[in-house]
């Protein structure tokens, strides 16, 4: 093993070029995320934690464990590399658009379908639900459903529980806190729970965006924010084509501020800041 092959990230473990290539191939296969050479330090840090947790001494042993059929480590491998930074009402203009758009839609029809693709720990779909309730207080009269999906089972469990530390809400207006959450007490002191009327609008499901999608519904709005930046262009093209096939003309797609559809999809036209409408 020469100096080029050996990572100099830390003396605790060695990460060779060959081992990193195995990690890259597995991550790409399982998640669609393309790890560049610049992400080697990141990968080392994330997976070194798993080696410590499992009391393993080297990356070869860890990768052999991950590559076993039906490996119990597979979910941890995926969770370690997927980035799950999110927050309530993140990129708030998206929800201002949604509030007005929902009013217009439900003035014309009684059914509404919204998809939060890559929902992480749940802040995005809960924000969508709170926005719907604010826009249409009697929304229970309508057939409204929010699908929230993520590849990572660990973050989905957190999302479905709907329990968050108080500091997650520190930048929200008091009225939003009151409408959306119940403050915990006793053993739950320092935490909040999403109100049932908010949570009841959402269905959480585990889904790998690169695999077949079981749902056949046409979605009025799809949120897929800060997800495709980890995919290469060819994967992005396939993904946005599949989104387009789940939407009718006039439906909307919302993506992250660091993303765009240039050279990726011709099926949408931009109608707002990172807000697109199907042609």
Task: Please describe what this structure looks like.
This protein is of the alpha/beta class and 279 residues long. It has 2 domains: 17-81, Orthogonal Bundle (Chemotaxis Receptor Methyltransferase Cher, domain 1), CATH 1.10.155; 93-278, Rossmann fold (3-Layer(aba) Sandwich). 38% of the residues lie in helices and 17% in strands. It is built from 10 helices and 10 strands. α2 runs antiparallel to α4 and α5 crosses α6.
Low-confidence stretches: 1-10
Please report the number of helical segments.
10
Give the full name of the CATH homologous superfamily of the largest domain: Vaccinia Virus protein VP39
Provide the CATH top-level class of the largest domain: Alpha Beta
End-to-end distance: 55 Å
> What is the mean pLDDT?
92
Rounded to an integer in angstroms, the radius of gyration calculated over CA atoms is 21 Å
Major sheet description: 7 strands, mixed
Order of helices and strands: HHHHHEHEHEHEEHEEHEEE
Structural class call reads: alpha/beta
């Amino acid at each position: 093993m020469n100096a080029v092959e050996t990572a100099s990230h830390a003396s605790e473990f060695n990460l060779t070029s060959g081992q990193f290539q195995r990690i890259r191939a597995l991550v790409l296969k399982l998640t669609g995320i393309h790890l560049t050479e610049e992400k080697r330090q990141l990968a080392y840090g994330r997976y070194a934690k798993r080696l410590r947790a499992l009391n393993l001494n080297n990356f070869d042993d860890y990768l052999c464990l991950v590559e076993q059929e039906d490996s119990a480590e597979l979910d941890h491998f995926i969770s370690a590399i997927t980035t799950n930074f999110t927050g309530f009402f993140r990129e708030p203009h998206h929800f201002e658009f949604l509030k007005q758009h929902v009013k217009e839609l439900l003035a014309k029809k009684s059914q509404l379908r919204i998809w939060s693709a890559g929902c992480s720990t749940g802040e995005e779909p809960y924000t969508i639900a709170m926005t719907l309730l604010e826009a249409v207080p009697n929304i229970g009269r309508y057939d409204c459903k929010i699908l929230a999906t993520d590849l990572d089972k660990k973050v989905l469990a957190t999302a479905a529980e709907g329990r968050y530390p108080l500091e997650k809400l520190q930048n929200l207006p008091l009225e939003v806190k009151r409408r959306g959450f119940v403050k915990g007490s006793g053993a739950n002191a320092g935490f909040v729970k999403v109100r049932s009327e908010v949570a009841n609008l959402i269905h959480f499901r585990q889904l790998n965006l690169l695999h077949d999608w079981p749902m056949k519904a046409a979605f009025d709005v799809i949120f897929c924010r800060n997800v495709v930046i980890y995919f290469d262009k060819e994967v992005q093209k396939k993904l946005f084509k599949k989104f387009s096939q789940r939407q009718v003309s006039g439906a909307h797609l919302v993506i992250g501020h660091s993303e765009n559809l240039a050279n990726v999809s011709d099926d949408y036209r931009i109608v707002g800041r990172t807000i697109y409408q199907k042609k």
